[in-house]
Amino acid sequence: FLVYFKLQTGRIEPNYPKVCGHQGNVLDIKWNPFIENIIASCSEDTSVRIWEIPEGGLKRNMTEAVLELYGHSRRVGLVEWHPTTNNILFSAGYDYKVLIWNLDIGEPVKMIDCHTDVILCMSFNTDGSLLATTCKDKKLRVVEPRSGRVLQEASCKNHRVNRVVFLGSTKRLLTTGVSRWNTRQIALWDQEDLSMPLIEEEIDGLSGLLFPFYDADTHMLYLAGKGDGNIRYYEIGSEKPYLSYLMEFRSPAPQKGLGVMPKHGLDVSACEVFRFYKLVTLKGLIEPISMIVPRRSETYQEDIYPMTPGTEPALTPDEWLSGVNRDPILMSLKEGYKRTSKIVFKAPVKEKRSVVVNGIDLLENVPPRTENELLRMFFRQQDEIRRLKDELSQKDIRLRQLQLELKNLRNSPKNN
Q1: CA dist., res. 217 & res. 333, Å (int)
Q2: How far apart are CA 329 and CA 340, in angstroms?
Q3: CA gap 299, 305 in Å, rounded
Q4: pTM of the entire structure?
Q5: Residue 206 confidence (pLDDT)
Q6: Domain check: are 53 and 197 in the same one?
Q7: In 362-370, alpha helices (H)
Q8: Is residue 8 part of a domain?
Q9: E-state strands within 217-301
């Protein structure tokens, strides 16, 4: 994947430096919400990797990750950072498992094993105490992540769910999917009762996915269609009809995917409330799309910029794993973004050769099922052999140093 830090716009040169350490296709990437130069990525090579982007951006291709995480037996399709806790990362693989990684030690500490098919989407509530998932088995689940216990489950036969998002602190979920007539559809759910959706609404008859994005500060929902250039806006209310359609952004250039700028990166002087980064594959470009509230006044608009989750974590990994929940630490955007966080990522030194979670060694005797999996296993073994050779070489050097010191001690006049 490509990391592009330059401020100027325009087409980048073909040989621009890339992050290219995976041995398979990269399926998902996420920026760390608390350390702005740390990225998590996952791949078809069954690994999750943590990358540290140098100050000022890449100067050359980056092939070495600061941390490589192996625990899934199949390719890894999703990664998500915990919203309030530093160094807690979730990964979902095609082995139907969700692993919770404590990056302070570089190991998985919990495993959620309640899914019967590929996990399509993960979303956290505001304080990260609940995890909502959609799955290829056509079920929507609300899970307590530390115990792996399923609190609520909906079998969505009439509304085949694809994506899910928690709607802030409203205790509601929104899903996008496909109706029984193969039309694109959204549904609103009560997180404490998934027996029936509160409302269902058909969007259109197109076939691409609908990506939902929710802004808790303005109570705005954005729906972006994969394969088309439309982004629809809705306002979320606490009473029926809950969803109020506002308007739609249209573009002839279809989007394959969308990224979002964090709140502290928005231009508050222009009343920018949301910014997408649209991947347009036909033209080979990434196009920024800003959502701006038209205001004549040049003063700070308190109503559209309330206190928002900031860049300081509310919990340590040990606190969260012990059962503590805390709301995000809020920040004001009035003075503009200033980098106040002094957190740095320190990769742990890993000595363990096995990955044991819930008494199960996740990497023991997992046979490859396809030629691609065999290749990925080969590459992973090659990485392990290279690491062991480096470790052996360092120990040889240390051994020679100790032998030399011992020889010097024996030959010293004092010993004679």
Answers
A1: 12
A2: 13
A3: 12
A4: 0.81
A5: 82
A6: yes
A7: none
A8: no
A9: 220-225, 231-236, 243-249, 257-260, 272-280, 285-292
